[in-house]
Amino acid sequence: ESLTHWREINFPVIGQYVDYLVKEQGVKNIFVNGTTGEGLSLSISERRQVAEEWVRQGKNKLDQVVIHVGALNLKESQELAQHAAEIGADGIAVIAPFFFKSQNKDALISFLREVAAAAPALPFYYYHIPSLTGVKIRAEELLDGIQDKIPSFQGLKFSDTDLLDFGQCVDQNHQRQFALLFGVDEQLLSALVLGATGAVGSTYNYLGKKTNQMLEAFEQKDLASALSYQFRIQRFINYVIKLGFGVSQTKAIMTLVSGIPMGPPRLPLQKATQEFTANAEAKLKSLNFLSFPGLKDGNMEACS
Ligand SMILES: CC(=O)N[C@@H]([C@@H](O)[C@H](O)[C@H](O)CO)[C@@H](O)CC(=O)C(=O)O
Q: Is the reported ipTM for this assembly greater than 0.95?
């Protein structure tokens, strides 16, 4: 495949994938056009079409479809927010702009407020992912008083390993009015102990049922079992991280496990190597992660 090839989006795959996630992975909440879905590598028109297809296919099958509408310019972000409302999405999420970066909390909130105002009836989530945006404003600071500025504020998608920051978000959420969704899959159990209300992550696309087992054990206060599930998940993630793990590799694993072709990533990302996929497959097999016993659904979102 040539490096300049611009792969078109394979829309029929979305319907197939909805069924797969619900039936095979026990995942009923979807976070669309985020990191895993390469939302920032799509044109605005493509982002609109992808969102429409997820909402259309998810109707009566999924509990929630949340659309990431963050962009480098406010106008496009507002357009996408408005569009999400028009098509009947269940919520919107926004990352911090990452070329010209907000220098402080107030500047960032001003940007987020303008986006939220374009779809005032939709629950609004701030997508905190400092490793990719480079915006390191702490989430606990941002949360403080945010509802006065953004009335539709619903919560955080917290994709960072700073558990002090996350814990302090939970601590100030006294009335439990916000959803605090954790996004570092290998640390989910620690975040649950601190009070995470849900999880959003890339590995739930193929380890959804395994993670549901951990959630169930945690709910039943069986910490020893929960820990054993978390360690098994960690063994896989730790292994692939050492091989070089990112969105491209996630796509290869999603294809491998689901049998649904996810296609290669877009430039500047490059396709995972066959060697990576073979090694990942062997590891999944050795951990017995390629079989799916029937289990209940959990409060998790896969990212697409
Ligand atoms: C940086 C990154 O991609 N983080 C992932 C995690 O699920 C991550 O892949 C996983 O914890 C393995 O490290 C998610 O937080 C991203 C995500 O939710 C998304 O696709 O928007």
A: yes
